Amino acid sequence: MAANKTDPRVIKTRNSLRKALVYLMRREKLEDISVQKITETANITRGTFYLHYKDKQDFIQSAIQEIVDDFFNQVMIDSNFSKERTVKVFSLRKAFQYIENNADIFDVLLNNEKNNFFYEQLYNRLANEMTHFNEQVNKNQQLKVPLNLQISFIDSAFLGLVSRWLEDGMIYTPRYMTQSVAKMLDQFSGKNVSLVIFFDGELEGTLEKI
């Protein structure tokens, strides 16, 4: 039975289930976590759980997709780089701030559990955003390096850096990480418009936890 995802009660229930999942994943292997354990930890009934999800796998994939969607909704911002149109770019500051605010979720899914589905969703979404950006600003430019290689390199490097940052206990602030990544990306910048400018290094503002 489908639930109305915009209903505040539905949102509250899904958030409780997601928090319960992260809590359990810090203590047990994913395959050992049952629906019963999830519902007991979230303090909801099994009946309520099945109003929202078909089974545990459906719940896990839906929860991860919601996290990824919310992340990109927060970090993709408008840029006036193009005179012809407004294009979406990736805010490094918002990304690192968001990850810090939700470190328990990102750390357990990227490092503790080594969840391939979470990594793949992040990787594919970032790749799609970079591809779309390139289509808007690089239409008539001859790229020195094939786009798929640029995307693979930057995508893997960024997610690998995030994983290491979390694993090291976030000893550097989001501001420092933003500045450092912006500097590293700048070293790869050339005369032509490249994917480097897809990553915005501005530093103002804050984000709240989800």
What does this structure look like?
Keywords: DNA-binding. The chain has 210 residues and is mostly helical. The chain folds into 2 domains: 8-53, Arc Repressor Mutant, subunit A, CATH 1.10.10; 65-200, no CATH class. 62% of the residues lie in helices and 5% in strands. The chain has 9 helices and 3 strands. It has a 3-stranded mixed β-sheet. The model is unreliable at 205-210 (pLDDT under 50).
What is this structure's SSE topology?
Layout: H1 8-25, H2 35-42, H3 46-52, H4 56-75, E1 76-79, E2 87-91, H5 92-101, H6 103-112, H7 116-137, H8 147-167, H9 174-187, E3 199-200
Parallel strand pairs: 2-3
Antiparallel strand pairs: 1-2
**Outline, from the CA principal axes?**
elongated
The Rg value, from CA coordinates, equals 19 Å
Strand content: 5-15%
- Termini, distance in Å? 26 Å
Number of strands: 3
Please mark out the parts with pLDDT under 50 across 5 or more consecutive residues, or reply none. Answer: 205-210
Largest sheet descriptor: 3 strands, mixed
Order of adjacent strands in the largest pleated sheet:
1-2-3
Query: Oligomeric status of the shown chains?
Result: single chain
Mean pLDDT: 86
Q: Could you say how many structural domains there are in total? A: 2
One letter per element, helices H and strands E, the order comes to HHHHEEHHHHHE
Class per helix and strand makeup: mainly alpha
Number of helices: 9
Helix content: 55-70%
